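Um, can you check?
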Amino acid sequence: MPVVRPVTLIAIVTLPMGLALVVSGGAQQKNAAAAFESCGITKTPTKPFVPPSPYPAKTHSDYFWFGTNKLWTQLRKDGTWQGLPQWADGTFRQKIFWFSEGYSWHRNPQPRLEITGQRLDVPASAALKLLDVASNGWTNDAEHPFIVSAINLPVLGCWKITGHYEDGELSFVVWVTE
């Protein structure tokens, strides 16, 4: 009768568990892919928005401008927010830069930008108020600033984000993932 060594026993015990994890992981990946496909992320429009002069007409190659002269932002072409930092309360933080023609950080250093978020991948999800006061920033041109916001999303998934500033409103859909 052959002697079974402890190393062999560990391999026999570990192998079925490892296979179960691979199968389980594959099923989770398929479910995540299906959820992403059904999310309806905001895609680059056929006629992309071009910000009014003197704001830059182009953005980074992985992004596109989205909105109107009243309120616009830049979004990732793949429709995702990936790898957001998770805070101690379990929420996921995203900073968003908003632009509005005529916005002045001199007159309005803490703009009343209201942001709501609604989860779209669960039934009957109510919109959550995520922000009602923002800050400001600028790059090399302080006369054409932007509005800076930071929102905390309670969970990953498919989100419709809506910003309201003065008489402008902008909504977009993103997939928030690890």
Notes: Residues 1-26 have pLDDT under 50 and may be disordered.
